[in-house]
Specification:
The protein is of the alpha+beta class. It is 35% helix and 26% strand.
Length: 320
């Protein structure tokens, strides 16, 4: 076999491998979109971010570049290279908004999923103190609520509250904080609090923390949460906040809490994904808004530590 022929066959084989890899990436991404997290196998694919179209486009172009007779089919590769980042940005970034109702009284919240923090609690506490939200909703964090920065911020007259899973750090008067669901790795608590705009009728918040195990079916978790909440006793919440461990495009998440809107879709600003903190690709921490209140602004912030980005948002009584 001549060397030229051998090189031609080798290049054709390599090109075929690159093209096949591109097709597999695209097929996996499309399958995740179509089937979402209806099954465990499909939920793995549903977490593939749209940005995957960019490397798929690169593989396509390399593949057809190596296969001389297919070089006229370069256009799909260019489309994928452009479409991937464009769609990803469109889905996860929102521009600055004009806040015409900035003067309306409301409560500012910080929500931060921490899980287990084994050391340096004071550094985490300093992050929350610097943000100076009216209420910090912290999942996990162990002893952060007892750290010196938090104690100094609350003052001698106040103390932090906890259900064991959720910690509430606030100087505002809390009427109620209690667990309503604690089973099978599914946690929910009801928080009722007074504050600006909610002096007469308190703000009711349902706090949620769902399992992170990627091998557990998100569809089954959502169904189990529905069942557990239906048996719990609490008033209809104004807000639902927490770590759902389900991305925004999750079909299981979309089936939860009908009648509530997503705060990020309505009032989000900047980059939306919350996990993982260093390179966030998915929004798995959510704020759902009932018909009686408004979230006038919501941002995600990199606190420089922890596994999740935190959310800062302002809640006001609903406008008539």
């Amino acid at each position: 076999m001549k060397l030229r022929t051998f090189i031609s066959i080798l290049l054709h084989l390599l090109g075929s491998i690159f093209l096949l890899a591109a097709v597999v990436l695209i097929a996996a991404w499309l399958t995740g979109i179509i089937f979402s997290d209806r099954w465990v196998w499909s939920q793995w694919l549903s977490w593939i971010p749209t940005i995957i179209l960019m490397p798929a486009g690169g593989l396509w172009l390399i593949g057809i570049g190596l296969m001389r007779r297919f070089r006229r089919y370069w256009q799909p590769g260019i489309c994928l290279l452009v479409l991937g980042p464009f769609v990803y940005l469109y889905l996860h970034w929102q521009p600055e908004r004009t806040h015409a109702d900035e003067s309306r009284p409301g409560i500012t919240f910080c929500q931060w999923t921490l899980g287990t923090v084994l050391a340096n609690e004071e550094a985490y506490g300093e992050v929350l103190v610097e943000l100076d939200a009216d209420v910090s909703l912290v999942e996990g964090g162990r002893r952060i609520r007892w750290s010196q920065p938090i104690k100094d911020w609350l003052g001698p007259e106040q103390t932090s509250l906890s259900t064991g899973i959720f910690s509430i750090l606030t100087p505002l008067p809390v009427e109620e904080l209690r667990t309503v669901v604690w089973a099978e790795g599914i946690y929910a608590a009801i928080l009722t609090i007074n504050g600006p705009g909610f002096e007469v009728t308190p703000l009711k918040i349902l706090l949620i923390d769902l399992p992170s195990d990627p091998n557990r079916s998100r569809w089954q978790i959502a169904a189990r949460l529905d069942d557990l909440l239906s048996k719990a006793e609490f008033d209809e919440p104004d807000l639902i906040v927490g770590d759902f461990n389900m991305p925004s495009n999750s079909r299981a998440f979309g089936g939860l809490f009908k009648g509530y809107t997503r705060a990020w879709s309505e009032s989000g600003e900047g980059w939306g994904p919350t996990y993982p903190r260093e390179w966030p690709i998915a929004r798995i921490d959510h704020v759902l808004v009932g018909p009686t209140v408004d979230v006038t602004s919501i941002r995600t912030i990199d606190p420089g530590r922890g596994r999740h980005r935190l959310q800062v948002f302002k809640v006001t009584a609903g406008s008539e």
